[in-house]
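dumping this here before i forget
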Amino acid sequence: MPPKNKAVADSTSEWAELRHTLVAMQETIQHTIQASIQELGESLVQHLGHLNQVREQEDDGENDNPFARNEQNSELMHQIRRHQGQERRDNNSNRWELGFEVEIPEFQGGVRGDSLVDWIVAVEEVLEFKEVPDDRRVPLVATRFRGHAASWWLQLKTSRSRTGKAPIRSWEKLKKHLRQTFLPHNYDRTMYTRLQNLKQGSRSVDDYAEEFYVLLTRNDINDSLIQLVSRFIGGLRPQLQNALSQFDPTTLAEAHRRAVAFEQQARTPSWNQFGSKPRSIEPNGSPSLPHSREMTDSSHPAARTTQPSDDQSSRRPPPRTSALRCFNCGEPGHRQTACPQ
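structure:
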């Protein structure tokens, strides 16, 4: 029986200690609440006192100037109208954007580098037009991945998560991974080599200019405007280069326009100064001058043989006579062994 009484006494002491702790916590909470209420009341009193002082000052001002309240009300209404007018102007300035449905094009992936470069250019134009924040560009662009590109993006996110790498949140970093994956090997070097070796050849100026502009977008070059014009002119045919050297164009558009004009002028048949007939074109591409009948007759070999002039016939030496003479009959033209006598 004594051990049982001891356990009961221990449990009683524990309950008493717990009750004492709860009572102390309650007193502390009550004290904190009372202090908070007192501080709140003091702050309210101070605030009300400040408001009373402001009202007294306003009453004094109204007594001095009876139109003060009306002026304050008119100023307040003016500010409200001005704010409403600014909001209305902002809405009108943004209203034109509601008529455009611009979406980011889909990207399927693949091994053609030109498709990726063109897609990146289109995406950047849309992001700039929509003013998409930097932290929202990657999630927005990733929603337009399809096919191979969608599988690649899912695998890339999974592999980075498994290796403990941070997710891709920068658009520049996403472009870097896209170029590493979907551009062919040595793509940049190949595009630069094509730009360096670009020549017009037998193509028209428009076809040459189109490829020139495309290769400019494929290469990251830092040439000045004058250097670009020189690069463009250097790929034209020599005849066009010589013609453009007389004008010294300062922009690509001017060089392109003048080259097209010279090309069209070269295709138009030119007129000579002796008559209204155009000059004929030789097989080598150079125009031939018209010849008179005498020049044609004298230059043609058949004319010289079939129609000899009197001077040529008089200058022709007489035919030679045979030097053989017969010793039997004394007649020329045969030998003694063949003499008919």
